[in-house]
Backbone:
């Protein structure tokens, strides 16, 4: 509560100066300037107290927000695996169906062999198309990887900001600021580098496969 | 016609992405597939068991795909293994770095099964 004591003391000084001013000639410049200075310091101390409170509050909330991000990432991963499992089951069934259709040869069908072009061939084509769609469904789930990577980068930035805020709280003192500064989760990467990567991940200036192929071609790739 | 019995190492820190690549490879007829969750894990496995092809993500903890590629190319016993980077890191400088490090091909996420087949065929033929 050192800060409160300081503010109280400054308020007393302020009041004393104001009291003095009452008994001095109105144009006395020294006391007037001292009064302004005291009020400025007083206001600054109050402002600092407010900021310090917000800082401590933000520092407490950041780990929770970071954990929420991790939970979202985990939930997305679990959901994606669930859909993948179902898609894989469908693929297996399509494979089975394809085998059954392929077993319907002219020799085995005998007199019904004429059914093959009309019924079996379209069924085969349908199975093939189903497999294509299921594969497209599976590859579309790569959104989880792309979004997950961005979430991980945001998480790393959160950790970095948390670390910096803790440093500020420890350095300038704050209620209950007994926490030691953790090593940043970013570790080897600076916040700036991570933020830059996050910008990249928006893909605004990234290249597509065609352009990647062009660049590789310059290195002699076919 | 590529040999479908080759042993393939799929490296990605996201289990969902490994599963996607494995499924595509399975549909393409490749069934001998192993997984690793980062470059360090992959390098350890590649050094202890023989592999014929490596498909790796770029951005991974512990060891990136590019560092894995450099390690593979620097090892006399491994440098012959075809190496494909499958990654969202699609900046021009990334592709140039990968080409300089000796990548065989580079595929940008998100990709299709057809794109992976085409790139694999180019690497293996």
Residues:
């Amino acid at each position: 509560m050192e800060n409160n004591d300081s503010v109280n003391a400054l308020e007393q000084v302020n009041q004393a100066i104001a009291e003095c001013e009452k008994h001095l000639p109105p144009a006395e410049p020294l006391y007037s300037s001292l009064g302004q200075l005291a009020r400025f310091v007083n206001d600054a101390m109050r402002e600092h107290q407010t900021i310090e409170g917000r800082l401590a509050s933000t520092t407490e909330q950041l780990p929770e927000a970071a954990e929420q991000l991790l939970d979202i990432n985990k939930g997305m991963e679990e959901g994606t695996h669930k859909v993948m499992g179902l898609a894989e089951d469908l693929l297996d069934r399509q494979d089975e169906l394809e085998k059954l259709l392929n077993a319907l040869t002219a020799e085995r069908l005998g007199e019904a062999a004429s059914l093959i072009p009309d019924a079996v061939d379209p069924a085969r084509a349908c199975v093939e198309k189903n497999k294509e769609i299921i594969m497209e469904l599976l590859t579309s789930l790569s959104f989880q990887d792309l979004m997950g990577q961005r979430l991980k980068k945001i998480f790393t930035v959160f950790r970095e900001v948390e670390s910096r805020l803790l440093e500020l709280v420890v350095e300038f003192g704050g209620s209950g600021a007994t926490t030691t500064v953790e090593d940043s989760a970013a570790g080897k990467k600076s916040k700036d580098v991570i933020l830059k990567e996050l910008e990249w991940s928006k893909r605004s200036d990234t290249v597509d496969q065609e352009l990647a192929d062009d660049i590789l071609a310059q290195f002699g790739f076919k | 016609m590529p040999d479908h019995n080759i042993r393939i190492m799929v490296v990605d820190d996201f289990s969902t992405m490994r599963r996607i690549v494995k499924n595509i490879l399975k549909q393409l007829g490749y069934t001998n597939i192993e997984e690793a969750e980062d470059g360090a894990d992959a390098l350890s496995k590649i050094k202890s068991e023989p592999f014929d092809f490596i498909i790796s993500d770029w951005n991974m903890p512990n060891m990136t795909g590019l560092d894995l590629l450099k390690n593979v190319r620097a090892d006399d016993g491994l440098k012959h293994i075809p190496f494909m980077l499958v990654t969202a890191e699609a900046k021009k400088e990334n592709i140039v770095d990968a080409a300089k490090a000796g990548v065989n091909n580079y595929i940008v996420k998100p990709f299709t099964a057809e794109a992976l087949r085409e790139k694999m065929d180019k690497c293996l033929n």
Observations:
- Chain B has one domain: 8-124.
